[in-house]
Design goal:
This protein is mostly beta strands. It has 3 helices and 26 strands. The chain is globular, with a radius of gyration of 21 Å. The chain starts with 8 loop residues before the first helix and ends with a strand.
């Protein structure tokens, strides 16, 4: 297959309509871009609250960016294995969210730093998420892939977070707990897995420093075991007085859960007993046919990232927006014309 350089933005803008202003962000080498970066769009007086910024699939930003207006920023997905169009928008640095109510959809981001309230991160691939202000309100992570950690302000000043239908998968030694320093939060229907248990300075945990939080319908597994220790949850998470609600989770935790009996423990020795483990990486954690997580959720549905309110669609593409699933350019001309075949689909889930 030959590659043809086509921009998805014509399709993206046409699919959404003209109620608010739309702007195209991408490299100057792509025709029709309005701005070369998110920063440039934020600095422009033309871009206003409520506008939408569409990232071209060739947008690859290496500098830190700051979102200072309440806008929606939409990419083209994050898993190139889902389509023949093997590129996706990405910010390979920190993306600072300094306005309330920012919405990010469907692109890759190295690090998100929250400074304000009620931001929504949907279907993104992120390494690190941090809350950078002690006064920040609750922010939301839906249907995301996260490869490092989600961190509240600090160990004595907890933050609020809403994490649903996300995958937090760590397969390397990291000197940090995966989700830490949160209170009065929601952690529902996620898959949280770590395949390396011990860092050079000690053990690390899936959840630590968390209180007064709903922790429900998650699959939390440590698939690496050293000396029979298993550190899914730090003891303060499930201790009496934590204020946490911990129900209908699938855990590899060996510590006593007598305070929270409505959980299933002792899993993780084999991921295949829970997950189908088929297809592309963003489709890997669908449940196996006879998975213990099927039917165990509080609503009678699936435990894990594919149950619950939002699901976790493969590829991370934005809902109801067209995308190229296949582009083929012929090897020779026909009647003086070069044949091009384009397959366009719409993400409907």
């Amino acid at each position: 297959m030959k590659r043809i350089t086509l921009s998805l933005l014509t399709l993206l803008v046409a699919a959404v309509g003209t109620q608010a202003k739309s702007w195209k962000i991408g490299p100057s080498s792509v025709t029709g871009m309005d701005f070369a970066s998110i920063n440039a769009a934020m600095e422009s007086s033309q871009v206003a609250t409520g506008d939408t910024l569409y990232l071209d699939q060739y947008y690859a930003e290496s500098n830190a960016q700051s979102v200072s207006k309440k806008v929606v920023i939409i990419g083209t997905g994050y898993d190139a294995s889902q389509t023949d169009e093997q590129v996706y928008a990405k910010v390979e640095n920190v993306l600072n969210l300094k306005a309330n109510g920012v919405v990010l959809k469907s692109f890759r981001i190295l690090e998100i730093d929250f400074y304000n309230d009620d931001c929504v991160i949907d279907r993104c691939n992120i390494s690190i998420v941090k809350v950078m202000s002690s006064t920040a309100g609750i922010n939301h992570l839906y249907s995301c892939w996260i490869s490092n950690r989600i961190e509240g302000y600090n160990e004595s000043q907890f933050s609020k977070i809403d994490i649903q239908n996300c995958c937090l998968i760590i397969s390397w030694n990291m000197e940090a707990d995966q989700i830490r320093n949160f209170e009065s939060s929601i952690i529902n229907n996620n898959v949280i897995i770590r395949t390396t248990d011990r860092y050079s300075r000690g053990y690390r945990y899936a959840l630590s420093n968390i209180k007064n939080t709903q922790i429900t319908n998650n699959i939390i597994l440590w698939t690496y075991d050293e000396n029979s220790y298993d550190y899914c949850l730090y003891p303060d998470v499930y201790a009496v007085g934590s204020g946490n609600s911990i129900e209908h989770n699938i855990l590899s935790l060996r510590s006593p859960m007598s305070n929270f009996p409505t959980n299933k423990t002792g899993y993780g020795a084999s991921s295949s007993e829970i997950f189908a483990q088929e297809g592309s990486w963003s489709n890997f954690y669908k449940l196996a046919e006879k998975s213990v997580a099927k039917g165990y959720a509080t609503d009678g549905g699936e435990v894990g990232c594919h149950g619950g309110m939002f699901g976790n669609p493969a590829g991370g593409r934005p809902q109801y927006i067209p995308y190229f699933s296949k582009v083929v350019v012929g090897s020779r001309t026909e009647n003086g014309k070069l044949p091009v075949s384009v397959t366009v689909k719409i993400q409907d889930e």
